[in-house]
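Sample entry follows:

_____
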Amino acid sequence: MGAQTLPDDVLDAYGIPVLPDPASATARKRQAIIDAALAEFLAEGYAAASMDAITQRSGVSKATVYKHFGSKERLFLAVIGGVLVRTYAGVAPGASGLAEAPEPRAALVRLAGDWARTLLRPDIMALRRLVIGEIDRFPQLGQLWYRLTYDMYNGPLIEAVTALDARGTLDVPDPELAVQQLVAATVGVPQLVHTFAPATEVDEEALDRQVASGVDLFLARYARA
């Protein structure tokens, strides 16, 4: 059965399909498809994932799957893009108050530690590996991922670091570069390890040492004497 052509005017800024809210009976079928597709894509990747397997997992007819999503490509974009947005919603540790914190080091260690543990969650790591594996085929998912993490973490940190510079606590000529360095030295290393070595257990003590050392490195460069 050929894929139906669906309107292409319901795409977000990244070219990812935006699904309208359906009626309740239709919503249950659509959610069943989404759950089945997510499980199949995470298990098999995009290329090896089977629309027949998704149909079987969902308990919904193939005709209904195509009616809702039109094609395997559109299904992948809609499901993974939607899951990324929902997964990150409300999980970001807030940087608000960092500029007024009486002990910036402690506040930075706590913030980076919370964010590292969020990023190392198994569901987020599984999504990260899937998106990285399909980045050439679906660059819009990489763009979405970058924007989500930037808006939730880097952006607020840049604002806080800029405020700390204005307050005289830090001397930061380039806040965006400084935050990139901070993220790389704290969150970046454990994220990289667990992305490419998924069987690695999270060592809480080692993670705390990595975060604290990264913050100290950042402050050694930017703390005002």
